[in-house]
Predict the 3D structure of the following.
Amino acid sequence: MKWRNDVSVYERPLGDQTAVSRARGLAAVIAGALVVTTVAVVAAFWPVAGTASLTAPAAPAADVRTQPQPTIAFPELPLYAGRADGTVVRIGASGIGGKAIAVCPGKIVSLLAGSPRGALLVAVCGPTAAGAGPAYVIDPATGSVSDAGVTAFPRNDAAAWSPDGTRLALLSPGTCDAAGCGTRVTVRDGGIREILPSTLSVSDLRWTDAGPTIYRTAAKDVPAGTYRWTGAAWEWLSADRLVDAKGSVLLLRRTFQGSVQERYAVVQHSASGETVLTPPNASEWPLAILDDGSIAAWRFASPGPAGAIVRYDQSGRGRVTSGEFTPTAVPSGGWLVGNDFQGQIRAYSLERDAFAAWPGQSDASIQATAVLRQ
């Protein structure tokens, strides 16, 4: 039987549980805690939500290439790792430090995601790295672990914290009936509350200043693209995949699909229109909108795992630094943190344009990593 997906949203208790109205299809109404008032936020950089840009796409500016810098020392960051024995540990600048937090003994911690406010982690455990498993919320400061009450996939797109760090969305296997396996979005506030029952396939779960968003594949009478939760319904926003939204919208667009190769572009959407930042014939993966408004992306090199970090300034000019990294890096305290394609933990200094490799890369028990935002 073909699986679709659920999206579950976990909220720290805010008081009495409120009722939820459930309905099949693209819309569901919530009375209570999850009312995401993002219409004005989206309108600031998306003048007409769900429509084409108001101006023609601008041409990308010329790149500025920096000289490759020597590898620098790995920083001390709030970086954590999930291990094959079901524990979560702190990753220090020189190795694993601190007391291990027992999350799910005997199972693999296959996904970790850190909250934007730097306080909590979510971990997903499963018997294999590919299977869905129970989700837990961890407070690293106290070592406390609480059951989120839902299962989730161990994928990078399966967990998303709200910008204020108080709510958590999870992408989970759907429930099945005679018609197949369905999709739903739920909210946890003393219980699990459903906000979207549907039969559509879901991926790319995000929670940005634009609100909760998901990417859906095409279905009958429903176009593919990014959908945004308005507080009452899921609204089509773009045919591209939303990656971040902070003053503008950062999108991922597939520009070429061949039998053995695909090519992607970084697209910025603002009140003045749409700009395709990636040069022609290049392939890039957007990472994040940084605090200064610049955009970080990873430019793939072919063949091989090497590529480059690209930082696009307000004019769209790219600052390119070659190295090895990952297309899923997370910003924290002036660094981008992630893994390279061999699984080694790496960090990139935004100030020094240089890479750092964690000295404990030989630890094969590490299954997932997450950094708390600073």
User: Anything to note?
Assistant: Confidence is low (pLDDT under 50) at residues 12-39, 47-57. Residues 243 and 251 are 5 Å apart (CA to CA). The first strand starts at residue 5 and ends at 11.
